[in-house]
Amino acid sequence: MEMLACHLNRESEMPLYEQLYDYIKIEIMNGNIPYGAKLPSKRRLSEFLKISQNTVEQAYEQLVAEGYVEGIARKGYFVLAYEDLEYVRTSKVEKQPKKKEEKIRYDFHPSRIDTENFPFAKWKKQTKNIIAYENQSLLLMGDRQGEFVLREEIANYLFQARGVHSSPDEIILGAGIEVLLQQLILLLGNDAVYGVEDPGYHVISRILAHYPNEVRALEVDDRGVKVNSLDNSPVDVLYVTPSHHFPYGSVLSANRRIKLLNWAASRENRYIIEDDYDSEFRYSGKSIPSLQSMDQADKVIYLGTFSKSLIPSIRISYMVLPKQLMEQYRKKLSFFQCSVSRIDQHILANFMKEGEFERHLNRMRKVYRRKMEKTLAVLKPYEEKIKVVSDLSGFHVVLNVENGMSENQLVKKAKEANILIYPLSNYRMDKKANPRPIFLLGFAGIREDELEESIKQLLKSWEFDV
């Protein structure tokens, strides 16, 4: 080859060697420089283009590294790529058109928390203490089950607050309940048949949709899941929220708890998954004991999270496994590495050790109780057409709306007013089970000074006389 007629833009931000490399590569791909062709020598090309030999050499070496060109000592550089080699070149990544942002004024999601009252200064102090030179070992991988110091704090807290019997060795930490559930599904095997409350928190159902396991929906009433429906059922593993059913808020009755524990104890492969997602927030009477605290046969798998009690973004959840399952976990799933930042784990451990977590819970119970009371007070004048279900706990109330509109109409009306409201049908496996318009009204994530106005705006959108 005589010469390369490459036009170099000396004012471009792209380096000259990169422009030359780009040009030669495209010419090869287009077949203009055929297979086996010899490229001009570095000296001749540098003189022709009026650039340094180092610039040419950089371009050639990049082509060699990517396999387009072969360098042969004392002979030169030869093209290796065939002309039919596919190549698609874009000058820049195409920008996707921006989606129009919806201006949501109020979001009544039942899982939203109050962020205004988070103890930023206390958390910042713990963060500063942990992120220090003397803690450089935290930059390395830690315990596969999670940091022992945090598992120890969780075990102490669970025993004091929920009566849960556990040791740090039986606790596994994960970045969210979803991660832990996937490990649990692998541990229990493909043949396990799962039962879930319906309506309920169907995260496990959505996860199981990607596994071969069968899932059965179980009815719920005002005393919790109907345990009798398990008698002639193939269910092996039951996922329940016994202390505060999601979303109705009912408590699994004492009789049903005993029946459920006896059901699990009657066969070797039966287990109960107890999701104790927001047990800290009960605003009337004593807290409801955990199901695990009553378990004598070691059949309850206990799940908990800091998403409601602290902050969702920390992504720290935990699972307490029965001893026999813990042994199987170590044999089968020891390759799993803890998915939570070690730094965050130590910050939380210190936060708990110094009593800040307990103080935070005490403050937030008062905040959420005030919000719930205000919510109930605002809705009371409309009780003829809005039946409110509340057990003075949790982050939401359930509304049975009877103003002649359908569920879809009510959702649409609210959205037109830039308000998000969540129907019960979102939490049902059987979408036809209850055609009435029932909604979950989350109050925790709405500012306290805006709560009354937000509910009134929702009622206005539903054409109530406010």
Structure commentary:
The chain is α/β, with parallel strands linked by helices. It is built from 13 helices and 16 strands. The strands form 4 sheets. An 8-stranded mixed beta sheet has the order 4-11-10-9-8-5-6-7. It has a 4-stranded antiparallel beta sheet with strand order 12-13-16-15, covered by helices on one side. It has a two-stranded antiparallel ribbon with strand order 1-2. Helix 1 crosses helix 3. It starts with 15 loop residues before the first helix and ends in a 5-residue tail after the last helix. The relative contact order is 0.12.
Keywords:
466 residues, alpha/beta, 8-stranded mixed β-sheet, 4-stranded antiparallel β-sheet, 16 strands
Write down the Rg. 31 Å
Question: Helix/strand/pairing class, anyone?
Answer: alpha/beta
Structure annotation, total helices: 13
Strand content: 5-15%
Tell me the number of strands.
Answer: 16
Q: Which oligomeric form is depicted? A: single chain
Order of helices and strands: HHHEEEHHEHEHEEEHEEEHHHEEHEEEH
**For the report, how would you describe the main beta sheet?**
8 strands, mixed
The helix content, as a percent range, equals 25-40%
Overall shape: it is: elongated
Low-confidence stretches: none
